[in-house]
Design brief:
This protein is of the alpha+beta class. The protein has helices spanning 15-44, 52-64, 76-94, 120-123, 208-225, 231-265, 276-285, 291-306, 309-323, 367-385; strands at 2-12, 113-117, 125-127, 130-133, 138-142, 151-160, 163-173, 184-189, 195-197, 202-203, 268-272, 326-330, 355-357, 364-366. The chain has 2 domains: 2-173, no CATH class; 184-206 and 262-385, no CATH class. It has a 7-stranded antiparallel beta sheet with strand order 2-6-7-1-5-4-3. Strands 10-9-8-11-12 form a 5-stranded mixed beta sheet. A two-stranded antiparallel sheet has the order 13-14. Bound molecules: zinc ion.
Length: 393
């Protein structure tokens, strides 16, 4: 089995190399923005977004323009990769099932700068804790905290909160593992608890964002009082960025610990097939029509998104893939209203957010746990007979 994986390290460029990296990132950012402007113009004229190939050809055209001749100083592969990313962003945006955001212009210092070097074998070289990169960069050192295993296909250099990083994307050949456990578990995602497992255990809500929200608000307020683009403004902007990074780190750490633990203990993990981003969209769209109701819903959505359910599911899937286990996504209809004991489906079964009480057979339990039990049950049935719509809708 061939798997893809990334190894990320802190890069330690010399001052000269850092300056060159900043220039290369600037080129790439320019090409993204220029390409995006071109795409938007095409759309305005009722035309389609250019194909990846057409976008690529633009680079050659731009380099011939007098006012853009400085692009000749750029490393072309970086530019091509940026336009490839731009094209991918449009494809995701037009894919209705993904609810992805429209590609946006990149601002210096605001978005994370990154450039990708492809064909590693041909143009780059790895030697101990040094890596040779094209684009007039030469040999750069990095903090090699662990070995790189596998064949390096490409690498990405990025800049975040004042530091440079390099990530090597590798392909590894691994034997298909056999999951050490035979246990199966159902997972219910919630608000009061991040997740509840069908074995009765649960994880507290993450709310990493909430915890740092105050700090973020303070730093952002300070930023708004500074003169835009002044030295102090830039300093303050870096502070805001740092809080953002802290939130992301805190969240990732929590999600990784949780997904690793569950993936290690259970060969089959059944989850609800929730479309989180669709939920948040529908709330946004109705703000004017139903004032208060939607407000509550937005809060709920925000909470779901905070908790990174999407990211959590992504982690569960790839970790199960590595371990030889599986993730089964089951239809989410009525998982919280179905009685695990007699199968009766009713809204009345769930009078409060926290408690489940069946109006037919009096079965009582924690509502989130009931959800997890139903998800597991559906996972089993899905595997056994390939059924997907199991419940009357
Ligand atoms: Zn019942």
């Amino acid at each position: 089995m061939l798997i893809r994986k990334a190894y990320k390290y802190r890069l330690e460029p010399t001052a000269e190399q850092a300056a060159r990296l900043a220039v290369l990132c600037g080129h790439a950012r320019f090409v993204w923005n220029h390409g995006l402007r071109h795409c938007l113009e095409q759309l305005d004229q009722g035309k389609k977004i250019p194909s990846a190939f057409e976008l690529n050809k633009l680079i050659t055209q731009w380099k011939k323009q007098d006012d853009l001749s400085w692009l000749k100083e750029a490393y072309t592969d970086n530019l091509q990769q940026k336009l490839k990313d731009l094209h991918g962003a449009w494809v995701r945006y037009f894919d209705k099932s993904l609810a992805a955001e429209k590609p946006r212009f990149k601002k210096k210092g605001k978005n994370q700068d990154a450039i990708r070097f492809v064909n590693f074998n041909k143009y780059c070289q790895l030697d101990g804790k040094r890596v040779k990169l094209p684009g007039k960069l030469g040999w750069l050192t990095f903090r090699k905290s662990r070995q790189v295993h596998g064949i390096i296909k490409n690498c990405t250099v990025s800049h975040k909160s004042g530091h440079w990083y390099i990530a090597f994307q590798v392909e590894q050949e691994v034997t298909v593992p056999f999951h050490p456990s035979t246990s199966a578990v159902g997972v219910d995602a919630g608000i009061a608890r991040f997740i509840t497992l069908s074995d009765g255990s649960y994880l507290k809500p993450l709310n990493a964002f909430r915890k740092h929200e105050k700090r973020l608000a303070i730093e952002q307020r300070k930023l708004s009082r500074k003169v835009k683009f002044s030295a102090n403004w830039k300093k303050q902007q870096a502070k805001v960025q740092k809080v953002h990074t802290r939130i992301a780190n805190c969240r990732n750490d929590y999600l990784h610990k949780a997904s690793t633990k569950i993936s290690k203990n259970h060969a089959m993990i059944a989850i609800e097939d929730l479309r989180v981003s669709n939920m948040s969209k529908s709330a946004k769209g109705n703000v004017e029509q139903h004032g208060t109701n939607v407000k509550a819903k937005s809060g709920l959505n925000k909470s779901i998104l905070d908790q990174g359910w999407y990211e959590f599911r992504r982690q569960l899937e790839y970790k199960q893939h590595w371990q030889g286990g599986m993730v089964v996504a089951v239809p989410a209809h009525h998982t919280s209203q179905t009685c695990p004991s007699c199968g009766h489906v009713s809204k009345e079964n769930r009078r409060t957010q926290a408690r489940f009480k069946c109006i037919e057979c009096d079965y009582t339990n924690n509502a989130d746990l009931v959800g997890a039990l139903n998800v597991l049950e559906r996972g089993h049935r899905l595997l056994a007979c390939g059924e997907s719509a199991l419940v009357a809708q």
